[in-house]
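step 4 of 6: structure.
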Amino acid sequence: MRTILAIFKKEMYHYFASFIAYVLLAVFALISGMYFLVLTSRYSEISWYVSQRPQMGFDMLNIAEELIRPYFSIILTVGLFITPLITMRLFSEERKQGTLELLLTAPVKEIEVILGKFMASLLFYLIMITITLPFMGILIKLAHPETGPIIAGYTGIILVVGAFIAIGEFISSLTENQIISAILTFGTLLIIGILSWISTFASSKIAEVLSYLSLFSHFEDFAKGVIDTKHIIFYLSFMLLGLVLTYFSIESWRWRG
Amino acid sequence: MITAEKLTKYYGKVKAIEELSFEVKQGEVLGFLGPNAAGKTTTMKILTGFMPPTSGKAFIKGFDIATQSLEARKIIGYLPEDIPLYDFLRVEDYLDFMANIKKVPPLEKTERIKQVMETCGLVEVKNKLIGHLSKGYRQRVGLAQAIIHNPEILILDEPTTGLDPKQIIEVRELIKRLRGKRTIILSTHILPEVSQVCERVIIINKGRLVATDTPENLTARLKGYNEIHLEIRGDIDSVRQALSVFPQVKEVMLVEQKETEVARFILRTEKEKDLREELATFIVKEGWGLRTLSLSTMTLEEIFLKLTTEEEV
């Protein structure tokens, strides 16, 4: 536990000691703020339009459908782009600089190192996503939406990004080059993410499997405000898979010297 | 303390070390000597538990490095060749991190960090970023992290490469200070270092053990003769003539003629006999001027070259 904590602290320190963290946070704040503005103004336009024509009914004025759900989808898509930048250096940099060798000759278990790094990346993402909390706060205060979809949305995003990070960590352990690590991670996430689109071209059995494996398709329920344990288990298994693969990758790296 | 049994390591098809066996006793300072790519680093990486050998076994204080790696790693302090450090941390924070990683008891941690900073002369730079330190200071930080958990064994891979002469001397002094009761293995291709710091030398070349002995014995074993350096003022030809027929002198070499009447010679003599006094008396009696007379022992440098360039010793 102490080792995990020490690694975690060191990684967090690294994020904020380098310029990357602030750039990522700034860019994320800009994008998430912009989209919030766009979606809210669109929603208020619709509201105005409907209020002028009461005969249309107020059915289409569903704030969860029109605002919250698309907003979480955007945040998730941004996560797809940002995760590779968060995870690219986790192991690549330490491999390149040789610090991983020193780390692994200390009395530590690989799994402690892997977990410490994973937790640091996840926490960094959590810090990033707190930027959106004030927006949601404004929304709750002014529009009184149901809070269920919001909580489900955040839960879903954290789970998906957790899976993203586990995959990113694994890929980072495969190469000494941070750029390659980032590009491969982005490519892999994109492919796993859009498996459900690919599945529309496949035969029904394959399509079923592919869309099941898609990281995005399991998010839909969360976005609708449903927290289903089967989706939680799916994402947790994905994280576990990523971490286990990282372990084997590092073991094999040690064998090769 | 350390036992290596027939260690063999292949990188793919390339053989790095082959059936390397040796033992290091407690408290011994062992020098690992060999040219580049001889297998020094590979051996150290195996001993530190970083890399498993292809075959063979290694024991650290009785712990099998393959199956009880964690226990073994607890008593080893290791400094890799290129001193990998976290540049974004301050010296003190880095040592704190390493102390946590190496399970220094929390209550002793602060005191321990202070101690190693004093030992390694880091107090004045403790708030500096490691990335801003000079090579010499980085080396000291590297040594500090190696001893932070007070390990019984220190494994140092080329601890003085890349340093300037002053820093080299400092680091050597530091290593001597770190010794205490510790067992130390250090690798180097700088030969004088071995005779200065180490009690025993293992010479490896192309992954095989070539020789192991104390620096003194190695010198003695390899020397088939003594060399006497002379500088004499006198008629060069007759001096040379007289020296070459001197009893027990095997060979006379004219090294350099300085002025018309002054020259330097090297005499090779029988190994057992020290001829210096007899020569001095003889030269003075002949009426020549004796300017220098000294006995040279073979340097480790020469032994090293001899050992690693010849098939059999």
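step 5 of 6: annotate
 - The first strand of chain B starts at residue 2 and ends at 11.
 - Chain B touches chain A at residues 9, 11, 16, 42, 45, 48-52, 70-71, 73-74, 76, 78, 80, 82, 84-86, 88-89, 93, 97-98, 100-103, 145 (CB under 8 Å).
step 6 of 6: archive
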